[in-house]
Amino acid sequence: MELSTRVVTVMRGDHAALSQVSLALKPGELVAICGPNGAGKSTLLSALSGLEMPELGAVFLGKDLLQMIAPRERAMQIGYLPQTGEIAWDMAVARLVSLGRLPQGDSERANGLAAIENALATCDLTAFTERSVSSLSGGERARVLLARVLAGEPRWLLADEPLAALDLAHQLRLLRVLRGVADEGRGVVLVLHDLALAMNHTDRVIVLHDGHVAADGKPEHALSSKVLADVWGVDARWIGEPDQRALTIRR
Amino acid sequence: MRLVPGLLFAIAVALVASLFAGRVWVDPAAMPNAYIILAELRLPRSVLALVIGGGLGAAGAGMQGYLRNPLADPGLFGIAPGAAFGGVLALSTGGGNLGALTVPVGALLGAAGAMGLLSLLAGRTAGVTLFTLAGLMISSLAGALTSLVITLATNAFALAGMMNWLIGALTDRSWQDVAIATPLTLVGVGLLYGAGRALDALTLGEEAARSLGIDPQALRWLMIMGVALTVGSGVAVAGVIGFVGLMVPHLVRPFTDRAPSSLILPSALAGALLVLVADIVCRMLPLVNELKLGIALNLLGAPFFLHLLLKMRRGNSPWS
């Protein structure tokens, strides 16, 4: 089922955080949303997740208008991982991950328990289930929060900068999990700041600039030197082999 | 889970003790009118302690879950000060022909007023922070109005009556008070219990909770109604009793999985137990005038709060 936007405009006061954005996202793809600070990346993600109602235009899940879908039904289809990584109470890992089953309300029945166990295994957390979250490292906590979303078995996984604040090894580990989710035929959309990660690990990059889509396509096209110059204002180019590219910046 | 049966057992023991304990230790065999003392004086008082404590405990657990802060207290919504203002106003004006119902009705109206003002101030889209600040504003407004009514009191008796009532106590309560507070508190605790799932989702923050299908406005209404009914009816029959809602969830939390929904019912039971035991202690202390329950719980609660703050300052989470 496609997740798509048609001429979506979201206002922040007098300023358009998103302006006439039309996109169609297909399941099975790992998509990155990139752009400078304030380009509208997080706004686009919350519009896609149904948390933000556009002033103009509409977001569709398949043929249905997203805002017409009951919140609980929507929650079962679209999993959203916010940037904050907030965990208010010091629960055990398994209990926290079980919160992902709240829309289904079956965290103590067979279906839900299987989904929770599956999510824990996918994120390499089987050994941690009884540990309290306060005893985990930042990278482990990020995996717990991802497992929480996966426990809901959503068809779409939207994550706002899930890799920020993680060290390289943890970034790659999480990306592997996300790639696996996409390979299962689910849609994965990430806001990414690190352009090299977007370049090497995603199938499609959407570049936002001042609320507009500035580029959209395969990473090597969407993140071409011209786009980097136009959008970020840096004179940079990619070096290295495909899938192992690095960005060099000319002074 | 053994927590709930354990609390129920402790409550049963305390309830029996509360009937016999007091300034005069009642020995049914030796005392001619023992039945009247037990049934008309001590039993309603004990039941009322359970009801009020239960309401405050549940409200505290709900508030901490809602504000995602272990230092939150049902007082933050401004409901208790609003109810206190209503009660004091009713005391000062005499409240028409309501007789013994004057103060409870006044206090309930005050609680409802604070509730209405709170939902008005917080508007449709306000986040939790703005909402809390609105509650604090209502608290100070209601506090100022209460002081105003007190300073305008025309005679010493009225003044003493207001001050006495404000402190919070369970002396000389009747079955009528039980009949007022019990149904309201039960409904309030039920609403708070119903909010449990949404409070669990809030563990992950407001955005994540919404993405899990939680309606923040519906949750806010549940919280306002739940806290207003439990705290409002408590103030209506016993005056302001503080710190129960703050302390109880802390004492209960280590015995649960720490999810807000797992805390509501045990906190209600533990709150009931705490207030009942505190009331027994108040009755038994060998003082010339009985120690007021409100004062006793504040004396207990303030150091507890400081202990939590110090624990936080040392960098340990106050969670545990």
Would you give an account of this structure?
The complex is a heterodimer of chains A (251) and B (320). Chain A contains nine helices and twelve strands. By secondary structure, chain A is α/β, with parallel strands linked by helices. Chain A has one domain (3-88, 157-249): Rossmann fold (3-Layer(aba) Sandwich), CATH 3.40.50.300. With 320 residues, chain B is mainly α. Chain B has 13 helices and no strands. Chain B has helices spanning 3-20, 34-67, 79-93, 102-122, 128-151, 156-167, 175-194, 196-202, 206-211, 216-238, 244-252, 260-284, 293-313. The longest helix of chain B is centred in the first third of the chain and has 34 residues, at 34-67. The two termini of chain B are 19 Å apart. Classes of the chains: A alpha/beta (251), B mainly alpha (320). The A-B interface holds A 46, 49-51, 70-76, 78-82, 84, 86-92, 95-96, 99-100, 102-103, 105, 134, 145, 148, 152 and B 68-69, 197, 200-205, 207-208, 210-215, 257-260, 317, 319-320.
What is the topological layout?
The complex is a heterodimer of chains A (about 250) and B (about 325).
Chain A: E1 3-12, E2 15-25, E3 30-34, H1 41-48, E4 56-61, E5 64-65, H2 71-77, E6 78-81, H3 93-98, H4 110-122, H5 138-151, E7 156-160, H6 168-183, E8 187-191, H7 195-201, E9 204-209, E10 212-217, H8 219-222, H9 225-232, E11 236-239, E12 246-249
Parallel strand pairs in A: 3-8, 3-9, 6-7, 7-8
Antiparallel strand pairs in A: 1-2, 1-4, 4-5, 9-10, 11-12
Helix pairs in contact in A: 4-5
Chain B: H1 3-20, H2 34-67, H3 79-93, H4 102-122, H5 128-151, H6 156-167, H7 175-194, H8 196-202, H9 206-211, H10 216-238, H11 244-252, H12 260-284, H13 293-313
